[in-house]
Amino acid sequence: MQHGGQAHNGDPQSRKHPQPYRKHSDQANGIGGTGTGATSYATVPTEYSAYPTFKSGVRSLIEEKTMAAVTWQGKGAVALREVDVPHVTNAEDIVIRTTGTSLCHADMHIYRGDVFDLKLGDIMGHEAVGQVVQLGSAVKNLQLGDRVCCSFALGCGSCEGCQRGETGRICDKAGHNGYLGKLYGERHSSLEGHAHFSSGGIAGCQAQYVRIPCAENNVLRVPNGVSDETALFLSDVAVSAYHAVRDVGLQSGNTVLIIGSGPVGQLVAQWVQVFGARRIVLVDSIQSRLDWAKQKLGPAIEATNSDSKTDCPHGFSQKMHELEPHGFDICFELAELAIPRRLGIGSLQKAMKTLSAGHGITHPLNECILAARNGGRVSIIADYAGQLGNFNMGLLTEKGVKLYGHGQPPVQRYWQEILEEYIMPGRFDPTKVLTHRYALEELPKLYDAMYNRKLFEESKDKPILKVFVQTKFSAEPSAGMPPVTKAHASNGAPHA
Ligand SMILES: [Zn+2]
Ligand SMILES: [Zn+2]
């Protein structure tokens, strides 16, 4: 999923506190909604409830009928609910028992209601590791009990796009579950846990069990010796960072600027380090993130706090010019400071004005173009939606800078090589951005805290980057990994 390094402030009028755990029967009676937009959405139990179990040749270890899942309950509200345990609905499906999931920046877009076609009760989440506990008869490369990691981008595996290794971007069947599905009747490819918009409401994996369609293509078996914490990153973020670095054509000896030091920004920094970048400058306005990156990636990483008058006495642009007078070979934009929210042009202009007044970055994309050398490249990993005003087109054309959008990463093309060539030999360690571990039951509070940037305030010394979310099926934390911690709900006052 596309990622931003900065949390984005939401609309305080549209949020409510998550509600406590409530039985599914209550939800079906229509009293589950908590957000202001609740009445305009239909209530659906789960996306798979409507489909009968595909019984022929199915092998199963599941005994439970219901499970706990984090469900969308209106703008700015998620809640833990008891829902049906998923089941195989096609011969190509599997169901896994979740042993680890996570919270991604992309989940916050859904939480805020930025995504179209959300329905009450949609199960959140798109990163998971787990154990195969139900197996459709057509799945030949997996066994019950196998440990697997699930791709957030689901593809059929057999269309021309998937055969070319373009799943996630060009699967011919991706998206058929939503509006297109109504036209063509397909219902098994798209993004996991991304509501009903172009993804058919495939249930997410912030749940004790998750159904994976077209499983032969959409899970990777995790070898013994690779921890759940490590494997979890192959669902999305480690692969997203790798894809951007490969796609933009990074070469050994390049100079690199990375604006946005969230988990994906730091994973990009680690990848370009692995691939031999000559100079890596990492930028953020949160000092604890920069300190964390230097501690984990070593002193060769140069960190600049864009809001610091010490770091940038004459402004950010001037500082970048002083660092690389001829410009950086490649700049990565992960800051998402100026995302035009849906119909949010007014707030964008306000944000631009506020940002221009201080020492901070006026517009991360323009800053990247400005900081790049003539003929250099800019990689956009931040999450943009719709049109963008104030884009410096003149600067782009004058300098001959190449702008790269990367699309959804083709996870299935890369994950095996990342695992075998980089992770297992110890050349790349995605857990360097794993900072916290929480129980699934704590996730609604974590959404709230992330939304209100509460955690950023509480974590001055230790930033919150990537979290591992455990379920009742998880093993104890692996050696050296974060122990489980409690999440604290915010006091409800959005970060100003
Ligand atoms: Zn993600
Ligand atoms: Zn396909």
UniProtKB/TrEMBL annotation:
<keyword id="KW-0560">Oxidoreductase</keyword>
<dbReference type="InterPro" id="IPR002328">
    <property type="entry name" value="ADH_Zn_CS"/>
</dbReference>
<feature type="region of interest" description="Disordered">
    <location>
        <begin position="1"/>
        <end position="38"/>
    </location>
</feature>
<dbReference type="InterPro" id="IPR036291">
    <property type="entry name" value="NAD(P)-bd_dom_sf"/>
</dbReference>
<keyword id="KW-0479">Metal-binding</keyword>
<feature type="domain" description="Enoyl reductase (ER)">
    <location>
        <begin position="76"/>
        <end position="455"/>
    </location>
</feature>
<dbReference type="Pfam" id="PF08240">
    <property type="entry name" value="ADH_N"/>
</dbReference>
<dbReference type="InterPro" id="IPR013154">
    <property type="entry name" value="ADH-like_N"/>
</dbReference>
<dbReference type="GO" id="GO:0008270">
    <property type="term" value="F:zinc ion binding"/>
</dbReference>
<dbReference type="InterPro" id="IPR011032">
    <property type="entry name" value="GroES-like_sf"/>
</dbReference>
<dbReference type="GO" id="GO:0016491">
    <property type="term" value="F:oxidoreductase activity"/>
</dbReference>
<dbReference type="InterPro" id="IPR020843">
    <property type="entry name" value="ER"/>
</dbReference>
<keyword id="KW-0862">Zinc</keyword>
<protein>
    <submittedName>
        <fullName>GroES-like protein</fullName>
    </submittedName>
</protein>
